[in-house]
Design goal:
The complex is a heterodimer of chains A (472) and B (44). Chain A is 39% helix and 13% strand. Chain A is globular, with a radius of gyration of 21 Å. With 44 residues, chain B is largely without helices or strands. Chain B is 11% helix and 9% strand. In chain B, strand 1 and strand 2 form a beta hairpin. The longest helix of chain B is centred in the middle third of the chain and has 5 residues. Classes of the chains: A alpha/beta (472), B little secondary structure (44). The interface between A and B is medium-sized, with 22 and 15 residues.
């Protein structure tokens, strides 16, 4: 079998269990792909020794017939996650030299399920960015290009290394975190599936906080099927994160069979398309036609005041982030990237009343959103990113006066979700005229991940966008 | 989220579950001596 690194989690798991391939060979194929993809700058701490050691152990377990769900499957871990004895810097200069003495719950769960860690993935400094150009390790470059134009493109952020690595087949899946779109934006820019989980579904223990009431963890994968496989492994109650739900973890893979027939899917009348380009509107309409042909009922819905919800999301974000970083910002201001520091700073000047009001309004905002939207429909369909992915030059804060607007608008369709705590999945749905991937999002009620994935899986059964690979 | 989905708050025994990790805790300190964090003198 050639190009083992291009196998999905399911195909690789079946081949491993059938004894057709070994985890060591699979891991070596990924390590080789990583070596060949230095230009992407996706993997920043490579751990080939750890990977091969775990792959050997996985092969022994497979031979013994004791193979858990992720046994022998090579994955990448975002640098925001603490991994025992392996640098975990959150893409920052400040945490240089930090070697955690403990493992994040998510990476521990993956390891316990037999997964093989290939290394740590690049990201925006402290997950405070949407374009992956604030990392102390240097920029991540998207594996995609505009047609024949060679200009480097942003991979989106902050989980840009994770999405680029999955898109370029350097690993079978990767972990990400999402506080305002940090999984869904790079999923969109790289044409992969990204799941922002319901607040409380996945433990944040051992993960550097960004905005602790809005931080969520989720996977980046090539297919919804793979997303379901890995979500079941990382989700669930964790004694070390008291905010995790005690709700039993469903069998997401089995739930894929629920399909989409009869599901009511909402199309927003307000907010989400306000700044969308005509091209993105057309792509969204195409994806809705596919969903309708698969048996979904499309219903237009009015949303509550989303600009206010997005504003409250921003207030929560900057205040919590500033609270986390205030001591370092005072003592080591020059060790922050300027763009990152300038995003925290407003949080130092907002009055406590603004933050308290933002938290106070939150349950009512969720209630009004659920009442207005999810009393009428099962899922809401919205764009991933409202425009085509920009180039590096266009997202460079020093070179482009457009940058502040770009940051505000690239996450136009993602920020509100984190304030509301609801789940959302990004699914590739075609290409813009200049050849760049784009996604739609499906959002649902809290803990509706099964429905999200069942609908997304049905969509991928009818389309082949997720099988398109970048040219480089 | 407790108001949206029915769930009972998790409880645990009121006992010590963690501790005795002095070496681990000090391992990333810029300076540690005799089992303590060492910091510059602030009072002359």
């Amino acid at each position: 079998m050639s190009e083992l690194n291009k196998l999905g989690l399911g195909a690789a798991r079946d081949a491993l269990r059938a004894g057709e391939i070994t985890s060591v060979d699979l891991t070596k194929a990924c390590l080789e792909a990583i070596e060949g993809a230095g230009a992407l700058n996706a993997f920043v701490h490579k751990t080939p020794e750890v990977a091969l050691e775990r792959a050997k152990a996985a092969d022994e377990r497979l031979q013994a017939g004791d193979a858990p769900d992720m046994c022998g499957l090579p994955i990448g871990i975002k640098d925001l996650f603490c991994t025992k004895g392996v640098p975990s810097q959150a893409g920052s200069r400040i945490l240089q030299g930090f070697l955690p003495e403990y493992e994040s719950t998510v990476s521990q769960n993956l390891q316990d399920a037999g997964a093989v860690m290939l290394g740590k993935l690049n990201m925006d400094e402290f997950a405070m960015g949407s374009s992956n150009e604030t990392s102390t390790y240097g920029d991540v470059t998207s594996p995609w290009r505009r047609g024949n134009d060679d200009a480097a493109l942003t991979p989106g952020g902050s989980s840009g290394g994770s999405a680029a690595a999955v898109s370029a087949d350097l690993c079978l899946a990767a972990t990400g975190t999402d506080t305002g779109g940090s999984i869904r934006l790079p999923a969109s820019a790289n044409g992969v599936v990204g799941l922002k989980t319901t607040a409380g579904l996945v433990s944040r223990y051992g993960i550097m906080p960004v905005s602790y009431t809005m931080d969520t963890v989720g996977p980046l994968t090539r297919t919804v099927e793979d997303c379901a496989r890995i979500t079941g492994v990382i989700a669930g109650r964790d004694e070390n994160d008291p905010t995790t739900s005690t709700r039993p973890v469903p069998d997401y893979e089995a739930a894929l069979a629920q399909g989409i027939k009869g599901l009511k899917i909402g199309i927003p009348r307000n907010y989400y398309y306000d700044i969308a380009t005509d091209e993105i509107r057309a792509l969204m309409d195409d994806s809705l036609s596919v969903l309708r042909d698969l048996g979904a009922e499309l219903i237009h819905v009015d949303l509550p005041d989303m600009e206010r919800i997005t504003h409250l999301s921003n207030v929560t974000f900057v205040c919590e982030a500033a609270a986390v970083h205030e001591p370092w910002m005072r003592e080591r201001p020059d060790d922050y990237q300027e763009q990152v520091r300038s995003r925290y700073e407003p949080g130092l000047h907002l009055p406590a009343t603004a933050y308290i009001q933002a938290l106070d309004a939150r349950p009512r905002a969720l209630k009004s959103f659920v009442d207005q939207v999810f009393s009428k429909v099962d899922l809401l369909h919205v764009p991933g990113v409202p425009f085509a992915i920009p180039t590096r030059a266009e997202t460079n804060v020093a070179a482009s006066s457009q940058m502040p607007t770009m940051i505000a608008t690239i996450s136009w369709c993602t920020r509100a979700t984190n304030y509301l705590g609801i789940p959302a999945i990004s699914i590739p749905c075609g290409f813009t005229a200049n050849g760049l991937p784009t996604t739609f999002q499906l959002t649902g009620r809290p803990f509706a991940e099964e429905t999200l994935m069942a609908a997304g899986h049905a969509y991928q059964g009818a389309t082949d966008w997720h099988t398109r690979a970048p040219g480089i | 989220m407790t108001s949206v989905t029915p769930q009972r708050l998790k409880r645990r025994q009121d006992v010590v579950t963690d501790g005795n990790q002095q070496a681990k805790i000090l391992s990333n300190a810029p300076d540690a001596r005799e089992g303590f964090f060492a910091v510059p003198k602030v009072v002359e």
